[in-house]
DNA sequence: CGCTGACTTGAATCTCTTCAAGACGTGTGG
DNA sequence: CCACACGTCTTGAAGAGATTCAAGTCAGCG
């Protein structure tokens, strides 16, 4: 299904997300769209960035889910975070000499690339765009910090609850979640590798959350029954997401 | 003890660190030094950045140790990482609306500030400097990812061993460590809050490392007796540090 | 000289992991 | 169309790793 440029623009989640941080001018928006090549699709399971490889391009994720991870020699895997519509992929890999982790498409993804080279030009002509990109990277760092907090100092039920609420807020920002539910393409194994738990324990923890009447997962969709209580359980404070949720 | 500008320049750890990534021209180096105000001292225990506050300035850390952390309402604390000579403080806080964690001086620190406003100018006139700054932020992200890996998927002894080796490499880059030892201003409580462990367990783990003949802590100095074996225990791969260690 | 902060150690306890086995749904080839 | 394999989810039981509680040592310091 062919799309015109103005189509991309109207629905572009990157603009939506960056727009939440800075008010970009029409010109800046146009420039940003021009930077990108035509979007293409990556099928689920494919690796977009591979640990140890060299990259000069970065990608904007338009649609779908991806995740960053790394595997120890003995097979233990850690997932660092999930990438959803509006997120940037591979910025770090192209700034550093090599990618130091792997980004894999979790669902079919639509991505658009542009070369880092063009960032130099952008610097000169549209410095605010670079600031916007840095803002995006800064926010990603906040997510990483919060992930450390989750894994380092929270117990299993807090981790899961907190993780779900973070996903809810992030997805809402790009219009991919309802008020209290969203499509969750994760297996329990992925959740385990994200939160530093075993599969079995994730299973038991989900059961507990279900029994408490807080959340349900049905048909790959997460439904939060009581956001207030879940927020209490998780001790969730969305400040770090820097997205003025609610008041928006 | 007064210093001339050329003094700062010669010994400036920021230049040393950024120089490891990009070869900055003389002009770029001079511009970078001009950006900064005169260094001043922050005494140990003082907070440099406070969670929830608004910041427009960023700081270069010239000397000393600081750490980023966050505390849960019930007192559990997580330390996200340590800042040493050459590191940037507060970039994230000034890009986002608020600081989302706290940076505290662990030892007396020497820092120099410059306003984020000037970054716009830098963008136009010296885009490579901004790239260098982004490289620095990217590397910081790598550290955070590795921290997640440590806490999420490694056991206590691996965490401690890996943590020590990371510190060794980072300190060596800015000439603050010998071949196999360095000054370690951390209490066991700080190590515990860094690695997601209890104080007691850190203590036992350090004892184990000592008994294995791998490391010793004497007089606030960490001495690694057998880097090879410690690297094996930790499964340490310095690739993520992006500093071409050894071959340097 | 007594107080405080950091380190140390033992014992009991708990959270989470590991091992094992079964249920369920789905896709595939005979 | 059935049998079988496979991936995911689920649950029980045993065990390991880490925490908590408690108490005691030691050095520095007012």
Category from helices, strands and their pairing of chain A: alpha+beta
Mean pLDDT of chain A: 90
Rg over C-alpha atoms of chain A, rounded to the nearest angstrom: 18 Å
Q: Which fold name fills CATH's third level, the topology of the largest domain in chain A? A: Jelly Rolls
Shape of chain A: globular
The CATH C-level name of the largest domain in chain A is Mainly Beta
Distance between the termini of chain A: 33 Å
- The topology string of helices and strands of chain A comes to HHHEEEEEEHEEHHHEHHEEH
- What strand order characterises the main sheet of chain A? 1-8-3-6
Largest interface: A-B, 49 and 49 residues
Counted up, domains of chain A total 2
Share in helix of chain A: 40-55%
Largest sheet report of chain A: 4 strands, antiparallel
Notes on the protein architecture:
- The structure is a homodimer of 248-residue chains.
- By secondary structure, the first copy, chain A, is α+β, with helices and mostly antiparallel strands.
- Chain A has two domains: 5-139, Jelly Rolls; 154-241, Winged helix-like DNA-binding domain superfamily/Winged helix DNA-binding domain (Arc Repressor Mutant, subunit A), CATH 1.10.10.
- The first copy, chain A, contains ten helices and eleven strands.
- Chain A has helices at residues 5-11, 13-19, 26-35, 91-95, 117-125, 127-153, 156-173, 188-195, 199-211, 227-234; strands spanning 40-42, 47-49, 57-63, 66-71, 77-83, 88-89, 102-105, 109-115, 181-183, 215-218, 221-224.
- In chain A, the strands form three sheets. Chain A has a four-stranded antiparallel beta sheet with strand order 1-8-3-6. In chain A, strands 2-7-4-5 form a four-stranded antiparallel beta sheet.
- In chain A, helix 7 (156-173) crosses helix 10 (227-234).
- Mean pLDDT of chain A is 90; it is low at 1-9.
- Chain A binds a DNA duplex (30 and 30 nucleotides) through helix 9.
């Amino acid at each position: 299904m062919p799309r015109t440029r103005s189509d991309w623009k109207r629905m572009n989640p990157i603009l939506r997300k960056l727009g939440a941080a800075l008010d970009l001018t029409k010109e800046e928006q146009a420039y940003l769209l021009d930077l990108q090549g035509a979007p293409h699709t990556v099928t689920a399971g494919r690796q977009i960035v591979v640990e140890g490889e060299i990259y000069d391009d970065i990608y904007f994720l338009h649609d779908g889910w991806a995740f960053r991870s790394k595997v120890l020699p003995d097979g233990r895997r850690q997932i660092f975070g999930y990438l959803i519509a509006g997120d940037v992929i591979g910025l770090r890999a192209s700034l550093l000499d090599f990618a130091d982790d792997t980004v894999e498409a979790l669902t079919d993804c639509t991505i658009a690339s542009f070369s880092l080279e063009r960032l130099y030009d952008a610097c000169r002509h549209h410095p605010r765009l670079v600031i916007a990109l840095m803002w995006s990277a800064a926010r990603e760092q906040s997510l990483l910090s919060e992930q450390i907090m989750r894994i380092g100092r929270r117990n299993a039920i807090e981790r899961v609850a907190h993780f779900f609420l973070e996903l809810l807020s992030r997805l809402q920002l790009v219009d991919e979640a309802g008020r209290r539910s969203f499509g969750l393409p994760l297996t329990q194994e992925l959740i385990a590798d994200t939160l530093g738990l075993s599969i079995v324990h994730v299973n038991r923890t989900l059961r507990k959350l279900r029994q408490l009447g807080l959340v349900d997962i049905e048909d790959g969709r997460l439904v939060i029954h009581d956001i207030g209580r879940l927020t209490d359980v998780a001790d969730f404070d969305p400040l770090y997401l820097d997205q003025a949720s609610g008041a928006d």
